[in-house]
Amino acid sequence: MRSPHRPARTLVVVCHPRADSLCHAASERVQRGLRTQGAQTRLIDLYAEAFEPRLSLHELRHYGTMVPDELAAHIEALQWAERVVFVHPTWFSAQPARLKGWFDRVWLPGVAFDPPPSGRGRLRGRLHNIRRLEIVTTHGSSKWVNRLQVHSGRRVVFRNLRQVCHPLCRTRFTALYNLDRHDGAAISAWLDQVETRFSR
Amino acid sequence: MVRWLVIAAHPDPASFSAWMRDAAIASLQDAGAHVDLIDLYAIDFEPSMSDEEHRRYEEISADHPDPLVRDHIDLIARADAMLFVFPTWWGSMPAVMKGWLDRVLLPGVGFQLNERSGKVEPGLRHIKYLAGLTTYGGSQWVQRLVGDGGRTIITRTLWLMTSKRHRGTWLALDRIDLRKDEERAAFVERACAELRALT
Question: pTM for the complete prediction?
Answer without folding.
Answer: 0.95
